[in-house]
Amino acid sequence: MDNKNNALLFEYLRSILYDAEVKQLDINSLDEPFQKLGLGLQFLEKSVAEMKSYSEALAKGNLSVELPAKENTLCENLKSIHADLKHLTWQAKQVAKGDYSQRVSFLGEFSEAFNAMTERLEEREQFLKSEAEREKLHAQELEIEVYKDALTRIGNRLYFFEKLKELLPIEKKMVLCYCDLDNLKCVNDHFGHEEGDRYLRRFVKVVQKQIRYKDVFARIGGDEFCIILKDCPYEEAVNKVKHIQKLFARAYEKPYPVSFSCGIMELSDELADMEIKDIIRRADELMYIEKKKRKDVSALVLAEQNSAAQE
């Protein structure tokens, strides 16, 4: 009889451990002294089935799986792994959000690999941020250069046209001064282009000292410059230009005349609808009128000097 009971119990235990579908045990087929052991094996069957189902879910990455019953001690280690995986998943999500302070200390060799990964990711992000900032600064520098005159380092023609287009609708009181540096061709021809470049830079230096930071100053051609004096009455602009002309004329002792001509015009609201090129053309015309007057005066002075010398 014992052999029969042992055989039934052994076969049931073997089926619990190895069969995909467990062969059920009929408790009543056991003699009474063996029925308690049979009930114990049935509890084991339930615990093993629960452990297999639980471990299969974890192996597939299902961290939302329901926890086994508390009395199932076979799943204690799996529960610990489950809790670790859930916490590790949360940490991975934090890293994905950019929190590279996350560290793992409870998973042995995996902890070392995870921590090394987050450190490399942090280093990589810092490098990319640094590169992005460098590229941004480089782009800003290039943009600035686009609007700079290479020789004088003030604004160029593009800068001036865009600035004037920007200011016309919003600034109510501005004066445009269209300046033409006298005798630049003569200086280049007789003293060389290096001296001509110095002549241009001297003019820029004198003007910059006399205008404000908020004013606009640009070189729009070889010997042509434009100044926008913001919040400046016309009469004040005229006096300022005359003052600059005097300063420039006596700032440097050169074997050639040092001067510039300037056309001055108010930029009123009615000009806001005009093309920029038309505004520049009008200022240019005013400049040539002033240049002609200056030449006429110089010719008259020279004639008087010659007449006095002959007498």
Give the helix/strand layout:
Layout: H1 2-18, H2 32-59, H3 76-96, H4 109-146, H5 157-167, E1 174-181, H6 184-191, H7 193-210, E2 216-219, E3 224-230, H8 234-251, E4 260-267, H9 276-310
Antiparallel strand pairs: 1-3, 1-4, 2-3
Helix pairs in contact: 1-2, 6-7, 7-8
Strand order of the largest sheet: 2-3-1-4
Radius of gyration: 46 Å
DSSP E strands, number: 4
Classification by helices and strands: alpha+beta
Structure description:
The chain has 311 residues and is an alpha+beta fold. The chain is 62% helix and 9% strand. The protein contains nine helices and four strands. It has helices at residues 2-18, 32-59, 76-96, 109-146, 157-167, 184-191, 193-210, 234-251, 276-310, and strands spanning 174-181, 216-219, 224-230, 260-267. It has a four-stranded antiparallel beta sheet, sandwiched between helices. The longest helix is centred in the middle third of the chain and has 38 residues, at 109-146. The N and C termini lie far apart (161 Å). Mean pLDDT is 88; it is low at 299-309.
Q: Would you kindly provide a brief summary of this structure?
A:
By secondary structure, the protein is an alpha+beta fold. The protein has helices at about 1-20, 30-60, 75-95, 110-145, 155-165, 185-190, 195-210, 235-250, 275-310; strands at about 175-180, 215-220, 225-230, 260-265. The protein contains 9 helices and 4 strands; from the N terminus they run αααααβααββαβα.
